[in-house]
């Protein structure tokens, strides 16, 4: 009886696993449209300036941008800024006459995060591919991009990320581009700042994920080369925590047992649970450092963050640009405001315009035609002729510098090749399709738990 | 932009004040030698390197008013005194090695320095070069900032008490799981979502509506219990009546689990939501926050009450009768369906309480929290002896302590795996679980 019942259980277990798989597959056909706090309504429903394609409209007729940004998951707090960046860019593109003479269209799907690859990211990327989009804007999470890139690569569609920072994505595919500088550059700036603040023993609370572990490696390298040491969470110490971890008191006490004088919180949404655990243990946040993946304003419920610092790729946008994005967001997202900061909004805006200008220059909305125009538009002149050679990083000559889509379109119509100088201030994309130089901004939290930009450093890779 | 230009202006003034030689260095690009200036507002750019350090005593507190001199590769030098935060900062216009010297005479009494000069190696233009200056000792008034466990013993003890806390909260949730299994035979995969529900209800009543946390968690229990009642009424009782098999019922619960997770994500978003606005300090013999102690106390009291109810009351005895032999129980006049309805109601109420307390001690709850501890609950229930209430308690405590204590040495990704490993090992030697009775064959 007992063996029988245990075999029965095993069968039931197997049946459960199959059912689970079936259920996952069933879930995947419906795009997730949950709305994280702060962004109400799915982005796709709300881009009147660049509406969804009508029947029969795809990359063979119109420039169709597929936005693949995080509306749910660990990075959802960064989603609204990128949505607004792309939305504002599309509004400007269509106000200037569209792409190749026809209005640009948009299909918005959720990229989710690296914990929901099978349920959100993968089915949604397939949806974009089957809709024959011209280009995909996303993902924000490096882990998501690494997962879906082979699919995108096989389909031959341009994928341009406004937020991927993992070094593993350098030169990942001929279809893949990005405009933030990689983690190694952010790690340089953050690591140097930590040591300059007089800290020599640093604990890094690292989530186990492509982006956070890669950034941790970069920070650790800089810390150690400057004479500081990593006491907890270092490479190879196996002290990363799972992305589904919810219980941080033991992790915090293990980290504090190494007597660090500063702590880097190298995690995403889990930060809202890590911070109170640190505060409960008596940690002073002036010795805490944030990364781009968790640099946003926090509720007072997590503790008083005044004096904590953090870095993020990109330049802090001017207040004019912020107003522009906020107005777009209010008008198109049911009056909601961008309340979690503007990290990756400029990157998203610039990426959208670069893609549209490439399509204009190629005279085609088909990614196979315009992919080779992307590098020159960022200023990399050599990319055309010397395939495989690192393009020059000095300002290109022979290209017409433009700062807006309208100017770029006019120049292209006049038969010129353009170099788009955008909001992000990045250098030309190099042969690995990374920006050859770009900004990293250092932020400091004020007494309202909001990160305020301190300096923007332009650094080369 | 205005910041940048004023800082440039300020730097310009400082540069002018330091010496004409420097200005000459700027003007004649053929000289490789640059210059070094005090640069409190230094920003790295293609022609400027910033060199910065912060003087801290052995308590990690800033040491102000110390004279620091920097000498650049060409031999030019500049001095600053550290500011109130202990920071000294220089702007250099040449790449290479810089010599940083501390004037020991300006150190406060009690603070000493072993080697007053340090070399900032390989300073590069366009970047911030950090310098470490090691100081020993501290002056009067410098408080110790020592936090966290100081010995391995303390660390292990803290992990143990964390395990105890986790175990008690798991027990609150898994007793319900065990009772439902015992009376209906269903392995309820949606039980984790009932825990999550409790956390979210506590969030709504406590943070959104501003109720006292005790009242909020009571309401969470009421909502949880009601959801158990309605669930049995609407789903499980009809399925039972139709004689649906156990594995199909389990699949229904898996479906319910997914549906609830995505429903939560839809309504509450993906980010963890806190259930209280207070930050409490850890303390006392168990190194827990006051809410940690309260959660432990509440768990123990509730678990004892449930245990007493099961053994000492008529309804409790009826419940155990249904669990032992439903047919016999029905034949002896027990209304099985009423008992099962009650079990669902109480179990889901307990799960909600567990969720509210879990969210309290872990600073928040998100849509997948319940799922993340579901496997631990299954492990606890199976380990203790499936279908037995006290077994669930023992199993939960073992699982909670094993998970937290192995977390000290094992990779964080693996700490939940150890719980399941323990489960396998114990089941090999004691298939019926620790407190479960071995089944008679035939």
Structural overview:
The complex is a heterodimer of chains A (461) and B (442). Chain A has 461 residues and is of the alpha/beta class. Chain A folds into 2 domains: 43-180 and 320-373, Response regulator (Rossmann fold); 183-313 and 439-460, Rossmann fold. Chain A is built from 13 helices and 14 strands. Chain A has a 7-stranded mixed beta sheet with strand order 7-6-8-9-10-13-14. In chain A, strands 2-1-3-4-5 form a 5-stranded parallel beta sheet, with helices on both faces. In chain A, helix 2 packs parallel to helix 10. The longest helix of chain A has 27 residues, at 2-28. The termini of chain A are far apart. In chain B, 56% of the residues lie in helices and 11% in strands. Chain B has helices at residues 2-18, 20-27, 152-184, 191-208, 213-241, 246-268, 290-312, 314-324, 326-331, 336-361, 369-384, 389-409, 415-429; strands spanning 36-38, 49-54, 67-71, 77-81, 87-92, 96-102, 112-113, 117-123, 128-131, 135-136. With 442 residues, chain B is α+β, with helices and mostly antiparallel strands. Chain B is elongated. Chain B has 2 domains: 2-136, Immunoglobulin-like (Sandwich); 153-429, ABC transporter involved in vitamin B12 uptake, BtuC (Orthogonal Bundle), CATH 1.10.3470. In chain B, helix 3 (152-184) crosses helix 11, helix 3 (152-184) packs antiparallel against helix 12 and helix 11 (369-384) packs parallel to helix 13 (415-429). Classes of the chains: A alpha/beta (461), B alpha+beta (442). Chains A and B meet through helix 1, helix 5, helix 7, helix 8 and strand 14 of A and strand 2, strand 9, helix 3, helix 6 and helix 11 of B.
């Amino acid at each position: 009886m007992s063996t029988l019942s245990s075999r029965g259980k095993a069968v039931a277990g197997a049946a459960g696993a199959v059912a689970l798989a079936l259920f996952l597959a069933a879930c995947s056909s419906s795009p997730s449209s949950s709305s994280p706090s702060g962004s109400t309504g799915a982005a796709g429903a709300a881009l009147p300036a660049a509406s969804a394609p009508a029947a029969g409209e795809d990359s063979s007729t119109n420039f169709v941008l597929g936005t693949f940004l995080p509306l749910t998951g660990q990075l959802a707090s960064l989603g609204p800024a990128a949505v607004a960046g792309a939305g504002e860019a599309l509004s400007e593109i269509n106000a200037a006459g569209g792409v190749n003479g026809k209005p640009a269209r948009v299909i918005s799907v959720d990229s989710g995060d690296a914990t929901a690859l099978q349920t959100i990211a993968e089915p949604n990327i397939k949806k974009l591919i089957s809709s024959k989009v011209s280009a995909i804007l996303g993902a924000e999470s490096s882990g998501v991009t690494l997962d879906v890139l082979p699919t995108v690569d096989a389909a031959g569609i341009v994928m341009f990320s406004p937020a991927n920072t993992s070094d593993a994505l350098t030169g990942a595919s001929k279809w893949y581009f990005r405009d933030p500088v990689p983690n190694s550059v952010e790690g340089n700036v953050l690591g140097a700042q930590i040591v300059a603040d007089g800290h020599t023993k640093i604990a890094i609370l690292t989530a186990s994920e492509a982006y956070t572990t890669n950034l941790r490696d970069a920070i650790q390298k800089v810390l150690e080369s400057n004479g500081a040491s990593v006491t907890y969470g270092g490479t190879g110490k196996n002290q990363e925590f799972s992305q589904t971890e919810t219980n941080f008191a033991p992790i915090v006490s293990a980290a504090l047992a190494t007597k660090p004088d500063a702590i880097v919180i190298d995690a995403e949404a889990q930060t809202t649970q890590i911070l109170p655990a640190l505060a409960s243990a008596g940690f002073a946040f002036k010795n805490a450092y944030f990364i781009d993946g968790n640099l946003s304003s926090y509720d007072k419920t997590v503790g008083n963050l005044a004096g904590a610092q953090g870095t993020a790729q990109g330049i802090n946008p001017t207040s004019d640009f912020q107003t522009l994005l906020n107005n777009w967001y209010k008008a198109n997202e049911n009056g909601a405001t961008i309340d979690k900061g503007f990290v990756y909004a400029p990157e998203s805006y610039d990426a959208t315009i670069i893609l549209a200008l490439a399509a204009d220059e190629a005279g085609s909305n088909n990614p196979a035609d315009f992919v080779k125009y992307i590098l020159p538009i960022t200023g990399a002149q050599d990319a055309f002729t010397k395939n495989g050679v690192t393009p020059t990083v000095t300002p290109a000559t022979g290209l017409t510098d433009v700062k807006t889509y309208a100017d770029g379109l006019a120049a292209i119509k006049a038969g010129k090749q353009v170099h788009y100088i955008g909001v992000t201030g990045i250098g030309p994309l190099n042969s690995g399709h990374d920006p050859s130089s770009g900004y990293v901004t250092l932020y400091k939290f004020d007494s309202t738990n909001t990160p305020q930009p301190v300096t923007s450093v332009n650094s080369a890779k | 932009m205005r910041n940048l230009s004023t800082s440039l202006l300020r730097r310009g003034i400082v540069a002018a004040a330091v010496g004409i030689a420097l200005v000459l260095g700027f003007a004649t690009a053929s000289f490789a030698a640059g210059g070094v200036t005090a640069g409190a507002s230094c920003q790295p750019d293609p022609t400027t390197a910033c060199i910065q350090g912060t003087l801290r005593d052995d308590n990690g507190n800033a040491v102000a008013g110390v004279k620091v001199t920097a000498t650049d590769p060409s031999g030019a030098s500049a001095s600053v005194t550290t500011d109130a935060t202990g920071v000294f900062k220089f702007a250099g216009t040449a790449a290479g090695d810089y010599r940083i010297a501390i004037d020991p005479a300006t150190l406060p009494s009690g603070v000493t320095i072993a080697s007053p000069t340090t070399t900032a190696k390989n300073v590069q233009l366009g970047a911030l070069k950090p310098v470490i200056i090691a100081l020993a000792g501290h002056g009067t008034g410098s408080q110790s900032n020592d936090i966290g466990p100081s010995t391995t013993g303390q660390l292990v003890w803290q992990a143990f008490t964390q395990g105890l806390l986790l175990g008690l909260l798991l027990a609150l949730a898994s007793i319900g799981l065990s009772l439902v299994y015992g009376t209906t035979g269903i392995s309820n995969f949606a039980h984790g979502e009932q825990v999550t529900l409790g956390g979210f209800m506590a969030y709504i009543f406590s943070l959104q509506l501003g109720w006292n946390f005790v009242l909020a968690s009571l309401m969470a229990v009421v909502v949880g219990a009601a959801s158990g009642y309605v669930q049995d009424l609407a789903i499980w009782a009809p399925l039972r009546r139709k004689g649906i098999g156990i594995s199909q019922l389990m699949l229904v619960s898996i479906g319910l689990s997914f549906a609830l997770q995505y429903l939560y994500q839809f309504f509450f978003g993906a980010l963890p939501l806190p259930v209280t606005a207070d930050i409490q300090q850890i303390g006392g013999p168990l190194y827990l926050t006051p809410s940690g102690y309260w959660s432990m106390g509440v768990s123990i009291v509730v678990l004892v009450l449930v245990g007493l109810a099961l053994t000492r009351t008529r309804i409790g005895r009826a419940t155990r009768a249904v669990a032992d032999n439903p047919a016999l129980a029905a034949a002896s006049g027990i209304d099985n369906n009423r008992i099962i309805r009650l079990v669902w109601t109480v179990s889901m109420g307990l799960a909600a309480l567990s969720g509210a307390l879990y969210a309290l001690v872990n600073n928040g709850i998100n849509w997948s929290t319940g799922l993340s501890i579901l496997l631990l609950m299954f492990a606890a229930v199976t380990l203790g002896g499936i279908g037995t209430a006290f077994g669930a308690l023992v199993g939960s405590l073992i699982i909670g302590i094993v998970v937290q204590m192995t977390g000290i040495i094992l990779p964080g990704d693996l700490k939940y795996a150890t719980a399941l490993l323990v489960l396998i090992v114990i089941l090999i030697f004691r298939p019926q679980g620790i407190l479960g009775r071995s089944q008679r064959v035939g």
